Amino acid sequence: MVRTSSDRRPAVNPEILSQFARACLAIADDAADDRGFVPVRRLLEKFRATLVARPLLVEGMIASQRSNDGTAVHERWLVLVDSEKYSFSEQEVQGESAERTLPERLRFTIAHELAHSLPFRVSEFGIRLRNVDTQRSGQGLVQALESETDRLSSLLLISQRSLSSLLRGRKEAPAADEWAAARRAMGVSRPVLISRLRSLAAGDPDGLRSGYGLRNLAIGIAEWSKEGRAALRSWPIFANFDRNIYPSFLFDLAHQDYISACDVFADASFALCGGTRSTLNVAVDAGTANFRNASQMLLECSSEDATRKPGTRSLFVVRVRDVQTQDV
How far apart, in whole angstroms, are the C-alpha atoms of residue 174 and residue 208? Predict the structure, then answer.
């Protein structure tokens, strides 16, 4: 796998991280509707949490309230979101569906805060941590899992069922516009979608990563400039190529924040280079990390049809059409 400069290694024991990830996958699948969409209201129910909007200095936070009725202690979880940033009604929350999703940033903020509550609830959701003092280690686990919370949030927002519906039985990977439509129906941003796909490397119960829908391709994000052309961003990228033979530009991108699309595709008719074509076939150098130019790879490149205002983003997808090995 190509690692980018923004890759973050787990700061917590992999076994513990795996348990949290499995818990999030199970919660998402249990909360999902028949089509695999995960409504926020169902996530809140699973976490026994209430959504509250009020003025905050941050986008969101998780809080708990404990009460004692004389016979038992009851804990109530609250997801607080900034009312100056987010505007929504109870009817919109209760009626959310794949056709009428809440704003993707709001959905992510809620999932992010719910994921933050997991270290304080290690006896719930099937989580069983060995040698952990659940009364004293909650805050320590929060700090250790901070860099992983975004990934756990993507597991909560995108169910395995929705990915299976999109990818199972495919003869080839979806192009950029199909991925864009899928992520809108899931109610997630482009980075959250890619983060979820990257998580398949660690746990993929349906074998999706090895199927044709996710093989021999890379999915990333391009950002538009004021010149009407785009740059490929180094983070996040999902890349999965047979025999670890990658397009060479991905190795370059691993060490830079961005690369001009024109430097990679060299065709002014391609959308990312300022043209009108959403799909382009192009031959590029390819290889492994040690032999980056060992092969020629024919790629089909596609770009999401999106607004080209400076700073806005589009998905891009490159899919292998042919690989010709050269003498090394």
Answer: 13
pTM for the model = 0.89
Domains of the chain in sequence order: 14-160 (no CATH), 216-325 (3.30.450)
Q: What angle do CA 213, 253, 146 make, to 5 degrees?
A: 80
DSSP one-letter string for 100-156:
SPPPHHHHHHHHHHHHHHGGG-TTSTT---TT--TTTSHHHHHHHHGGGHHHHHHHH
Exposed, middle or buried: residue 80 (CB in 10 Å: 0-12, 13-18, 19+)? buried
Decide which of 327 and 318 is more confident.
318
Segment 132-144 mean pLDDT: 56
Instruction: Answer yes or no: are the C-beta atoms of 27 and 39 closer than 8 Å.
Output: no
Higher-confidence position of 203 and 68? 68
**What is the CB-side half-sphere exposure of residue 132 using CA atoms within 13 A?**
19
* Integer Rg of the chain from CA: 21
Instruction: Classify 174 as helix, strand or coil.
Output: coil
